[in-house]
Recover the amino acids of this structure.
């Protein structure tokens, strides 16, 4: 049943359009950060003080996929305070560095 809740949360989060990120604990039991692009800026908010390994889900509207070539829909990674590192195909990369490719700065909200 836990996976059903994860699926429903992801579906609800992805309905609004725009590029979004949800950061989960590795076992998908808790959302530890989330964010979306607003006004050309990826605005992230930590949901807890969690530091450690994470699973990251990236969502965007089907029509937006062409705008972000090479951006995967999921990554494993590491969350450390206001730094999210992703294990990308090219190696470990910080989210802000990855999104620079599309001129999207990252802002952590308090």
């Amino acid at each position: 049943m836990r996976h059903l809740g994860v699926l429903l949360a992801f579906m609800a989060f992805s309905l609004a359009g725009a590029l979004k990120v949800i950061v989960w604990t590795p076992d998908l039991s808790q959302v530890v950060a989330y964010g979306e692009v607003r006004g050309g800026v990826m605005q992230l908010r930590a949901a807890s003080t969690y530091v450690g390994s994470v699973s990251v889900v990236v969502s965007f509207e089907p029509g937006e996929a062409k705008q972000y070539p090479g951006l995967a829909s999921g990554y494993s990674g590491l969350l450390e305070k206001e730094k999210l590192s992703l294990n990308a195909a090219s190696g470990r990369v910080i989210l802000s560095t990855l999104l620079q490719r599309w001129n999207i700065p990252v802002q952590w909200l308090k």
The first strand starts at residue 20 and ends at 24. The beta strands are 20-24, 31-38, 41-46, 52-59, 74-80, 83-88, 91-94, 106-109. Residues 57 and 102 are 18 Å apart (CA to CA). Residues 2-14 form the longest helix (13 residues).
